[in-house]
User: Fold this.
Amino acid sequence: MDMLHFEWDPQKDKERRGMKKEYDFSGARKNPYAGKVKQQITINLNQGTIQYFKDLAEETGLPYQTLINLYLTDCADKKRKPEVSWISA
Assistant:
């Protein structure tokens, strides 16, 4: 069986794709979304809640973490507050 042999030269590949050695970013604008970057946190959720969003993810094709974020963002945007009542013993 004959083996195929390929050689790859990263510099030649860059030149072939028209990449420059240096770029001038002096006229570049700041990223307008930089202040809206998500922050990674650790949160404890009930198993049933996680399963609900995982099932919803199957239906929608969106990752369940994205669905949780969308729901919480909607609650925050609309200033929703949970209804909590304490039962006295």
User: Anything to note?
Assistant: The chain has three helices and no strands. Helices lie at 10-16, 47-60, 64-77. The mean pLDDT is 86. The radius of gyration is 25 Å.
